[in-house]
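S.,

Sequence below, as promised.
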Amino acid sequence: MEPGFRAGEYLKQTRNRLGITTREVEELSRKVGLESGSEEFYISNAWLTQLENKSSVPSIYKLFTLSVIYRMNFSELLAMFGVVLSDAARLQSCMPLDHTHLASVEASDRDKPITFPIRFDRGFSMEKTNLISRMVELWGEVPISMIQNLDVRHCQYGFIGMDDFTMYPLLRPGSFVQIDRQGNRVNAAKWHSEFDRPIYFVELRDSYACSWAELTGSRLTLIPHPLSGCSTSQFAHPDEAEVLGRVTAVAMRLEARPEAREAAEINDAQKSSRRL
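The prediction came back faster than expected:
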């Protein structure tokens, strides 16, 4: 049988377990439509009968109405018709974008638990490098919604585009960075090394940038790593460039992907030709 038909059968069984008729679903859907301000959410008796007995795919509006009336998780309903929201993150990692952009951190099912360290061994020193597995005394299942609330008030997350070599080799293309939104003012304080110098995540008119920065009056200068071969650029602040925050953490591959490695070689060759 086709996936759509199996979904219809399951929805019919769910309705029967709830003890409601197709006409009652129709009446309840009217209320959803009125509350939502659109007739797209309305489900007729005839349409529901067709969905339950034939292979058809409902619109996202009607699927939402069914999730409300049947008290079902919307992502589970989507999965019945072949749309698995949890696959989104995996598929995104398989097709990285070339340009630097913000990265969302979300879960399709916030109530689903994941394994997470809930107590650390007091005998281990947090100041020394160690394996997380040896530092954790007790692992437990924690709802994803709890993990999502750990630091989202202050932080965003960004992805360094696969062709963005602005901060290379300090930040490799394909890196994920954590952005402290409270650090959205360019700091003119002295720094002792390139590792101490603040890196900022900046929103431009049509793209994003991640680099060192200097603010002089209303001119924001984005400064690349000297080994990157990239040029310094200036923008009117805040009209053309807005500082979203300071980069406080980074997760990156120590071994570049083949395509990134090839792009790095091209970037080095272009840098050498400019010197000549």
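The chain has a mean pLDDT of 82.

Coffee later?
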